[in-house]
Design goal:
Helix content: under 10%
Distance between the termini: 40 Å
Strand content: over 45%
Radius of gyration: 13 Å
Structural class: mainly beta
Number of strands: 11
Order of helices and strands: EEEEEEEEEEE
C-alpha cells in the first residue's frame, strides 16, 4: 500500500508562486520516479515534471524555466516550486510515484491550484 499526500495548493495571483509538496509512505514497491501531473476540467491529465532516484528531471515545455521539481531531504518526498504562475496553470495537481519499469504507479488525491486575479 502506497500513500501519497500532497499539500501546498491554493489560490494565487498571476505572476505569483506556490510550492507543492508530496510525501510517499507505505510503499509496496521501490519508487524510481516521483512526479507531478495536472488536470484541468475537461482536459486530459498531463505530465508537469518528474524526477528520478538519480535526480534526472523532465518538464513539460509549458513549465520549463518556471517550475522546479526537487526531492526533499527525506526519502520519497518531492516538491514542485512554481513561479511566474499563469492562469493556464490552473488545475488539480497530482503527485505520482512509479517503479523502475513503470509497471506500478500510485497517485495522490490531488490538490487544487487556481491562478486568478
Amino acid at each position: 500500500q502506497v500513500q501519497l499526500v500532497e499539500s501546498g495548493g491554493g489560490l494565487v495571483q498571476p505572476g505569483g508562486s506556490l510550492r507543492l509538496s508530496c510525501a510517499a509512505s507505505g510503499s509496496i514497491f521501490s519508487i524510481y520516479v516521483l512526479g507531478w501531473y495536472r488536470q484541468a476540467p475537461g482536459k486530459q491529465r498531463e505530465l508537469v515534471a518528474a524526477i528520478t532516484s538519480g535526480d534526472s528531471t523532465n518538464y513539460a515545455d509549458s513549465v520549463k524555466g518556471r517550475f522546479t521539481i526537487s526531492r526533499g531531504n527525506a526519502k520519497n518526498t518531492v516538491s514542485l516550486q512554481m513561479n511566474s504562475l499563469k492562469p493556464e496553470d490552473t488545475a488539480v495537481y497530482y503527485c505520482n510515484a512509479g517503479d523502475l519499469l513503470g509497471s506500478r504507479r500510485a497517485w495522490g488525491q490531488g490538490t487544487q491550484v487556481t491562478v486568478s486575479s
